[in-house]
Amino acid sequence: DVYFTDTGDLEIKNESQTAYVYDRTLDLKSQILNLINKKTGETIDRIGAFAEVVSAKVRAGLIEAKKLVVDGVDILKKLNELSDKSDKQQKIIENQQKQIEELQRTVKELKK
């Protein structure tokens, strides 16, 4: 059995056995990642399934979740709300830019 510790004995590597570096893409279909015991070179291939886990600190190479809730806040819902708000603000800014351009043209015409 292998137990997670903070001694640095476990390492996430890709299929070519080089250390995995997150490159800001989530193209997981082309990624085959292995958990390697650095002391023995063994690949850890057992998975634990739990209905509930309580932990003070979690370090992970990647976390995939269908839903993420932090302090009662649904993160996907909040991100969608913020994105919608940002889109609305962008439209307001674009309309104001058009109004400014129109006013500048009017002032230019009046100066003639």
Q: How far is the N terminus from the C terminus?
A: 86 Å
Helix amount: 25-40%
Compute the CA-based radius of gyration.
26 Å
The number of helical segments is: 1
Uncertain residue ranges: none
> Could you give the count of β-strands?
5
Q: Please report which band the strand proportion falls in: under 5%, 5-15%, 15-25%, 25-35%, 35-45% or over 45%.
A: 5-15%
Series of secondary-structure elements, N-terminal to C-terminal:
EEEEEH
Structural class: alpha+beta
Choose one word for the global shape.
Answer: elongated
Strand order of the largest sheet: 1-2-3
- Biggest sheet: strands, sense, closure? 3 strands, antiparallel
Mean pLDDT: 79
Describe the structure.
This protein is an alpha+beta fold. The chain has one helix at 75-111; strands spanning 10-14, 33-37, 43-44, 69-70, 73-74. A three-stranded antiparallel sheet has the order 1-2-3, with no helix packed on it. A two-stranded antiparallel ribbon has the order 4-5. It starts with 9 loop residues before the first strand and ends with a helix.
Give the topology.
Blueprint lengths: L9 E5 L18 E5 L5 E2 L24 E2 L2 E2 H37 L1
Antiparallel strand pairs: 1-2, 2-3, 4-5
